[in-house]
Model the fold of this input.
Amino acid sequence: MTRPTAKEVKAMADVAGLPVDTDVATRIANSIGPAFDAFAAIAGTLPFDLEPSTFAVVQAEKVAK
Amino acid sequence: MSTEPALMSLTSVAKAIADKHVSSREVTQSCLDRIARWQPRLNAFMAIEAEGALKAADAADAALAKGIRHGVLHGVPLAHKDMYYEAGKVVTCGSRIRRDFVATTTETALKRLKDAGTIRLGSLQMAEFAYGPTGHNSHYGPVHNPFALDRITGGSSSGSGSAVAARLTFAALGSDTGGSIRMPAHFCGVTGLKTTVGRTSRAGAMPLSQSLDTVGPLARTVGDCAVLLGLMAGADPADPTAISGPLPDYVAATTGSVKGLTIGVPAAFYVDDLDAEVAGVLDATIAVFKREGANVVRVELPDQRQLSAASQLVLAVEAAALHKRWMIERPQDYGPQVLMRLQNGLAIPGVSYLEALRWRGPALAAHLAAVAEVDAVIAPVSPVPAPTIAESDVGNSPDADAVIQRLTRFTRPINYLGLPSLSIPSGFTRAGLPVGMQLIGRSFDEATLLRIGAAFQRATDFHDRVPQLK
Done:
């Protein structure tokens, strides 16, 4: 996963129905870029069968010290 | 008993009212007197309902005179963050958009506290739509820190932190999606409990992020938080995400010592790049726990930056989705920073959002494996004590991201994992600014955190310090 460019941000905002100008798109790209960078090692690596609800399953497991 | 009832703890004042050592009217008037003195300096209240509070206090006293006690908090006046719906009341959510919104339902935790006998003092300031970590609000002005009026309270539960610290209310509901209970607790020198995702109902609470939002109390003591959690927690037909099953006795948990418990100190991330005085408070806090008999060990946690990133991806998308209609119809009615942050969510692909949600289970499992040998992890809430209001008033400037990221660095990962975390007043800087530490527990194990926190408060007096109006 790579951080979106300002051009890509602008296109996505348009598709979302909330167009933004180039300055705002650049600001958004800079703002969310670090999160994409930090998550890059996880993105694209998750097992096929992994459900979001796994979180609730792990939460409910009794973990004793 | 203190000559000023408002200075008592929640637990003490509830008992004093029940024992008729003080009336609910005297207690309520004492809070209102302090509010009258402090509010012009703090801006902690969104609305003050003096007449209604005194009327309710008189009714509570009349009931008690007839031998009727509605609950364990009978006649205790409280105010809460202005995002908890109460039928018939305006709930602004700290926003211009909801300035005149009148709720038609009552939020579950609020209802349970009312059923326990509490009465309403008014509502408390907050960051606009709970989306801000500093305590600034471009519509209603910043909330001020009672320990230093030129300093921030932290957010988003800014009014809750400020009002509890100044002894204007005995406790307050806050909410924590990225640190919004723990940061005001840290900056304002009060106790704050971020609950496990699923521990408390969110029905009737303004949403920010369905996956991350939690409801919890800010109060003067760990014991007070235990009382409140015991009343608030548990299953709710109106919110299927609130888990069922028996609740621990949280108040009983606060009587235990830390002897035999193991507290983990992270080897990295939470101890990196700390303000020197925050680092000193962390060391001193660890020393207290050792002195009280806890075993303190180093723990190697998984990469917290990845957790923080995942938290940001989830929060940004869910907040944008919730606000999309208003972003289209009323963008001019948002504050600049909130609109800026909401716009971030537009640029995150659905696949990235779902990957962040799908990874949550494995990430939690990895964390629980890393802390398998400890009862709780201790970490600073924030790397710094309260910055000034002026230096953190960054709006939507290029500096905004840096300020937000620095303040929330140590809170976001915990929200992603959905874990409980108790912020306790742990010291003061030389300039008199409070510093809090967070105790991070296992899912649904708030009881152990309350046990450890209460033991710490029996050994220290940081939670007893009352700010003075100069």
Notes: Chain A touches chain B at residues 1, 4, 8-9, 12-13, 16-18, 20, 24-25, 27-32, 34-39, 41-44, 46, 50-61, 63, 65 (CB under 8 Å). The mean pLDDT of chain A is 92. Residues 22-39 of chain A form the longest helix (18 residues).
